[in-house]
Amino acid sequence: MNDDARSVGHVKPQRARFDETIRLRSGAQLPGFDLVYETYGALNAARSNAVLVCHALSGNHHVAGFYDPENTRKTLGWWDNLVGPGKPLDTRRFFVVGVNNLGGCHGSTGPKSHNPATQKPYGADFPLVTVEDWVETQALLADRLGIETWAAVIGGSLGGMQALQWTLAHPERIRNAIVIASAPKLSAQNIAFNEVARQAILSDPDFHSGHYYERGVIPRRGLRLARMVGHITYLSDDQMAEKFGRQLRHDAHRFNYDVEFEIESYLRHQGDKFADSFDANTYLITTKALDYFDPAFSYGGDLCAAFARARADFFVASFTTDWRFAPERSHEIVQALLHNGLNVSYAEIDCAAGHDSFLFDTPYYHQTLAAYLERIAS
Amino acid sequence: MSNALNSMRGRFDFEIIARWISPGSRVLDLGCGDGALLSLLKREKQVRGYGVELDSSNLLACIRNGINILQFDLERGLSGFEDNAFDHVVMSLSLQTVHHTVSLLKEMLRVGREAVVSFPNFGYKPHRESIANGRMPVSRHLPYQWFDSPNVRFFTLADFDVLCASEGIGILERLAFANGGELVTEDPNLNGEVALYRLGRDSR
Q1: What's the whole-model pTM score?
Q2: Exposed, middle or buried by CB within 10 Å (0-12, 13-18, 19+), for A253?
Q3: Residues of B in Cβ contact (< 8 Å) with A328
């Protein structure tokens, strides 16, 4: 099958409006909200083939396919290599749903949205949302779409945390959780990197305490820096060495602060690209959601106790070069599942791309997902 | 476990192992290959089973066969498993491929109440004859050349008995087979091609 035949093709986002007031984990309330989502494939008559794809920090609802047939490459979904006819998450068999999480900046209600209380954008007044809140709102969307039970919820990194949370919050509504390059909670080091990213944004003079929209500016430098530091943690040392090494832009040392080493150029480019497409308030909120995620917290730190309520089958995968959420973090998840006698398979995948490996289509990685998803489908 | 050994992992030891395992028990299969034993135990004994495999193609086979499979490196021990997590820990035709033999055996009996171990007997008569003739043995259960063998430990039933005695590992049952599944009763250390042990905690 050629690449075109394996694409879900031209897609359009949809919008679901929820008028009910939702109470968030923080105690804050939102008087109704929108979720933007996309679907691929068809829901079967038994409504048993739905798969929810949860996005990570910088992702959104646009998982697969393209928006612009004239420019497919630049408008491609972020996990297009996984989702489509004949791909591991095969849209000929599964009804796949991608959703932009609450607090996001790609269409769902978030800091950029209109605050009915102030008649201005929410900005910093948008409440902090958690992984738990995302799962609750995803459950409302599932209700709206007529999906009682997900065949699977799948996600990488922060997306994997949402898959985990589904098995705890709605054990009867999820048959399989596919948890990739994830962790049961952030480490101190993870939180430290998030804090540096947040401080970069918070200290940008254009941040204006989060109310920058009305001033017609964005805290671009802060967001750019936040992404640069984040991006370092997504790559592996080896991969950076291989890709950039100490390559110089100009063959000689120039003794100034312009780009000299290629890695600097790469990071600046990544930062710029991100600052053009992402919202600083959403970035802040999302890093906090990462920090707060800790299902064992209300069980005295006992992850095994937390998973006692889970009923799903699990597929857990990690990548050897991922130092942000290293394989050991996945082992913690697996151990808690084993303790509870749950069905779990675990793959530790060789891939040089560090944390970002979950977005690549390394053959063995995609084969494991295809094999597991095939098992779910049949 | 290598694919070559998958095919060697005959049904004959599976049937004995299945006899030793009580219905509904919790089973961990170390080096489980494509999951054939666990499939059998699931089907006939309704066990709650997990396999451990490092080999990627075996892992894929297990996923396809609906087996719970964990890609852990056994050389790093069984620290991922809690004490008494399993009723039986099985290691079929893989013990000879592991460096940390003693610690792994002890770990098997930490996480499992009982262990089942099978291994090719280096003291099998044709192997001895081969050595006597000046060449390393190559046979059905030792199918490799000396330079490409995944095996790192070469031992006999007698060697294993001594180790168990010195480490306080209880031998609950010991069987030897030859010719692809015939039970050997006479001088098993000489006539047994493959040994199958059921082990328990401290014999002293």
Answers
A1: 0.94
A2: exposed
A3: none
